[in-house]
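[audit] Reproducing an earlier prediction to check determinism. Same input, same settings, fresh worker. If the C-alpha cells differ from the archived copy the diff job will pick it up downstream; this log only records the rerun itself.
[audit] input (174 residues):
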Amino acid sequence: MSRRKHGEGSVYSYVRSGVRRYRIQWYERGDIDDPDSPLRRRSQGGFPTTKDAAAALRQKLSSLDRGEPTSTARSGLTVGEFMDEWVEGHRVGESTKAGYLKIIRLHIKPYIGEVELAKLTSTRLAALYRQLESSGRRNHKGECTGEGLGPNTVHKVHQSLSVNRPRFDGEFSC
C-alpha cells in the first residue's frame, strides 16, 4: 500500500482478542468556525476490512471538505437531550443529581440546549461562559434577572459540560 499524502488520513490495522480490525485516523480543526484553530487528530476503529475503513475515511474527509463536523455523536441529538440522558444515567446521590439538574435547567438549556451536540464548539462554549458571567443569573422560576453569575457557578457549568463530553468512540468519559 502506498503512503498517503498529508491531510488524506490513514488506515491501519490492529489485533484485539485475536481478531484483526482496522482503524482510521484524520486531522480536523478543533473548531470548524475558526480557521485558525489548531488541528486535532481524530480516529475511529472497529472496521472489519480495509475496504470498510477506507470508505469510512473517504466519508469523513468529504464531510470536512463540506465544512461539516465529523463527530460520531448521534445525528440530531441536542445538548439538552444529551444532558437529560446523562444525568438520568449518572450514578450519584440525590442531592448531587439535584445540583446537576438545577445547573442544566437554569444555565445550560436556556442558552445552548437546542444546539446539536455535533455542532457544539469551544468558541460557542466560551461565548456561553462570558454571557453567564455578564448577565446569566436566573431566579428560581428560570427568569433572567440581568445580573452576572459568580465565577464558582460558571465553573460548575463548565464542569457539568466537561464531564458529559462523549469520546469519539461513542462512549462516555469521566
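[audit] rerun output stored. Observation attached for the diff report: The radius of gyration is 19 Å.
[audit] end
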